[in-house]
Amino acid sequence: MIHLPKRSVTRFFVPLIDVLILLFCIFLLMPFVSHPDATLQKSNAQADPKPELSQDVTELQRQLAEERRRVERLLRERSHLANQINVKVLEIDSANGQLYSFDATSPEPRQEVRDQSDAQRLIDRHKRTAGAREVFFLILYPRELTGYPLQRQIDKYRRWFKDVPHGFDNPRS
Predict the structure, then answer these.
(1) Pairwise CA distance, residues 153 & 158, whole Å
(2) Beta bridge mates, 168
(3) 64-82: pLDDT as tens digits
(4) What average pLDDT score do residues 128-157 get?
(5) How far, in Å, CA of 111 to CA of 125, rounded?
(6) What residues pair up with 136 in beta bridges, in sequence order?
(7) What pLDDT, on the 0 to 100 scale, is given for residue 38?
(8) Cis peptide leading into 149, omega within 30 of 0?
(9) pLDDT of the residue at 12
(10) Would the pTM count as exceeding 0.70?
(11) C-alpha angle with apex 138: 103 to 100, nearest 5 degrees?
(12) CATH number 3.30.420 given to 85-169
């Protein structure tokens, strides 16, 4: 006949598992608490802490001053570039693909650019108002998809502005 043991096996294994879990947690925390090289570093740091710290501080101060000069130089260059260019925005109508210019000083603010001569007058007028700055014509595509401008219209606009810096802003490309 089979007899039950007098002592339960779980009374032995439960405390053992608890101890093993505790040891495993300590093993996981060991890298955060100390490193084997930490004792060597501590002995070196206790011997002469001031010179190393002061060298680091002076090096960091030098790098900070250098980066501040670099940031100031980049800001000056950026503002200088922004002052060198004058952008004229033109818009393509979504209903028919015609090119339009906007001039707030004229009685009719929206003016159609019909042909090469209108484009040349616009270029000349914009160059006069820009002064010494470089002119750039930005041609905006319609924001909604209507089928306009046609490819032949785009080619025509490129021919009109081929002698001056220009670009197209197509939201779908």
Answers:
(1) 9
(2) 139
(3) 999 999 999 988 887 776 6
(4) 88
(5) 14
(6) 87
(7) 56
(8) yes
(9) 74
(10) no
(11) 45
(12) yes
